[in-house]
């Protein structure tokens, strides 16, 4: 039995309200709140980066486990980190004093937390020499938004923060059950930061043309192809995950989705026949890459919304496009 022992989150003190976002975007405050589902979000200043927020999120977990007893550190957060072509996992391992662990990263943009749960569970199941794995992520994707670019308008909810989870074989609150992951690679070319890679290296021209911000190649074309399948694929991976775990959609007590616009959130709930009370919606935090479902789990626990026996599903989707879900059951209060 592979379990989540404890979760933790961190948010930088800076906050951008819907009113401030109206000034930046020209989109009315009420539209940002009602359509984007965003009242405010946390934004880090220039002194704090994705790795720093990941470290701050993980610190409380070291109160329940000796850092020297952690065997693996897995960074699953945003691919937009302190530096390009750079792994933050070794920095996190070093700064937290987790000297006996090896560290690495997995990256599948926003879909990565349910996948990271599966990876950690599979590692603990197959390798009996491992006892404790730290999943940790950071996000500073507020910095890759060009608020004057209407093509990336649906990504104005990008926000900053950190989240971490300790997985072990015992003493946990949640058992990690089964996962379902689905990729439709036909969307691989739709969303990206155009410059800074080998296709379009950084230059004076790329900076002047704002090509180092996230962009959507052809929003109308992507919408035409994505809208008919996106909600259906969310429902598909949730259904597959709970059924592989021995349950049905009717058994779900709490859904932990990524932050999306309010209409998509409602469509997912309708498709799963869940009320809003059975989901965590991050309307005061926004979208933090892969962190959202873990943030939701931490919030649900802090708010005492979960009791022993509850079935909980972490679900997310990442550009490219991959949809992923992992089912949990609460085994201890």
Automatic annotation (TrEMBL):
The Beta-ketoacyl-[acyl-carrier-protein] synthase III N-terminal domain, residue ranges: 104-185
Q: Give the matching InterPro entries.
A: ACP_syn_III_C, ACP_syn_III_N, Thiolase-like
**Residues of the Beta-ketoacyl-[acyl-carrier-protein] synthase III C-terminal domain:** 243-328
Superkingdom of the source? Bacteria
User: Keywords, A to Z?
Assistant: Acyltransferase, Transferase
- List where this protein forms a coiled coil: none
Q: Which SUPFAM superfamilies has this protein been placed in?
A: Thiolase-like (SSF53901)
UniProt xrefs under NCBIfam families: PRK06840.1 (NF005308)
Protein name as annotated: 3-oxoacyl-ACP synthase
């Amino acid at each position: 039995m592979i379990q989540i022992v404890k979760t933790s989150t961190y948010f930088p003190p800076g906050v951008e309200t819907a009113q401030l976002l109206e000034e930046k975007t020209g989109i009315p405050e009420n539209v940002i709140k009602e359509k984007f589902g965003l009242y405010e979000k946390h934004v880090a200043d220039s002194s704090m980066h994705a790795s720093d927020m990941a470290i701050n999120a993980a610190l409380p977990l070291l109160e329940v486990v000796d850092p020297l007893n952690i065997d693996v550190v897995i960074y699953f957060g945003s691919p937009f980190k302190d530096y390009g072509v750079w792994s933050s996992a070794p920095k996190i391992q070093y700064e937290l004093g987790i000297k006996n662990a090896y560290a690495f990263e997995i990256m599948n943009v926003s879909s990565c937390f349910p996948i990271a749960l599966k990876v950690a569970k599979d590692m603990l199941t197959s390798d009996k020499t491992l006892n404790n794995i730290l999943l940790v992520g950071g996000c500073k994707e507020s910095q890759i938004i060009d608020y004057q670019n209407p093509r990336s308008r649906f990504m104005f909810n990008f926000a900053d923060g950190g989240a971490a989870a300790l997985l072990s074989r015992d003493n946990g609150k949640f058992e990690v059950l089964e996962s379902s992951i689905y990729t439709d690679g036909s969307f691989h070319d739709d969303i990206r930061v155009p410059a800074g890679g080998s296709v379009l290296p950084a230059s004076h021209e790329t900076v002047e043309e704002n090509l180092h911000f996230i962009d959507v190649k052809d929003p109308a074309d992507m919408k035409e192809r994505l809208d008919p399948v996106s909600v259906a694929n969310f429902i598909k991976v949730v259904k597959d995950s709970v059924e592989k775990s021995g349950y049905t959609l009717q058994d779900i007590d709490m859904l932990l989705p990524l932050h999306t616009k309010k209409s998509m959130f409602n469509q997912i709930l309708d498709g799963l026949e869940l009320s809003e009370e059975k989901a965590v919606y991050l309307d005061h935090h926004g979208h933090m890459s892969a962190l959202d479902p873990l943030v939701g789990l931490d919030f649900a626990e802090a708010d005492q919304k979960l009791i022993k026996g509850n079935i909980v599903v972490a679900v997310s989707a990442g550009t490219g496009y991959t949809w992923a879900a992992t089912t949990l059951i609460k085994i201890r209060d």
